[in-house]
Amino acid sequence: MMALPTTITDALEIVLITGMSGSGKSVALHALEDVGFYCVDNLPPELLLPFVELELQHHAKRLAIAMDVRSATSLPQVPQQLDALRACGIVIKPLFLDASTDTLVRRYSESRRRHPLSQTEQHDDFNGQAQVDRDERRALIEAIELERKLLEALRAQAHVIDSSMIRATQLQSYIKSLVSSPGAQLTLVFESFAFKRGVPTDADFVFDVRMLPNPHYAPALKNLTGQDQPVIDFLMEQPDVQRMLRQVSRFLDSWLPDLARDNRSYVTVAIGCTGGQHRSVYLVEQLVKRFSTQWATLKRHREMDARI
Q: Which DSSP symbol is given to 207?
């Protein structure tokens, strides 16, 4: 096997996709293929460095590689391999696709596929079917929790995307936005959400703004969003809203340089209100304006995106 070159003059970008089975890794690969990445699914970790060496000979520019828990015994070597690739000047963007256990159970139940770590067999008879279903559900949950444990180290070193509440088209859009951001600097991801639909598990920081004045109770503003000028005008006039904006901005100003020095590629800041339509959307829009002059920024509006 060839040794990796000490330095690589031609920029090579690698997106490494790992994550929970059923969380959308195939969807992510298809999104990357659409924007020009050469994609490989289920690559064994033992082949990562040889594969990259081969692609360097072919002058590859953008690679997307998916690995999953079927390679569990060799996954612990991946972080060291990524360090070796970075030392050569290769840009690495590790992404981890996640979803709640309930979501994964539902997806497996709907597809009737077996989890790769499942030790149970499918039953086609109807004798004691209720007990069979309970046993299979319990076995599936145990397999999912085992998978979480096996993937903990990779999750800790990657940018996490929670696909529990987003459609495949949203996930594709998120993936394309992430890979379009500069690879050599910190990227801020601002996300609005509704607390009534759960807190995004991929958030690094979560700010609760439900105590702020709510445009929902103004009849003329109820059906508008934080992107509409009447709602913007209303919230700009609220002292508490502006105080919250200043304090979140100061917090991020204080800590982002340290996060960048820690070689973080992405930081996700989630802003939540009751419905994810007015206050959180407004604050995300304002924060993007505020920080886009200093950092690469992306924005998501989870509840609004879901309607598209």
A: E
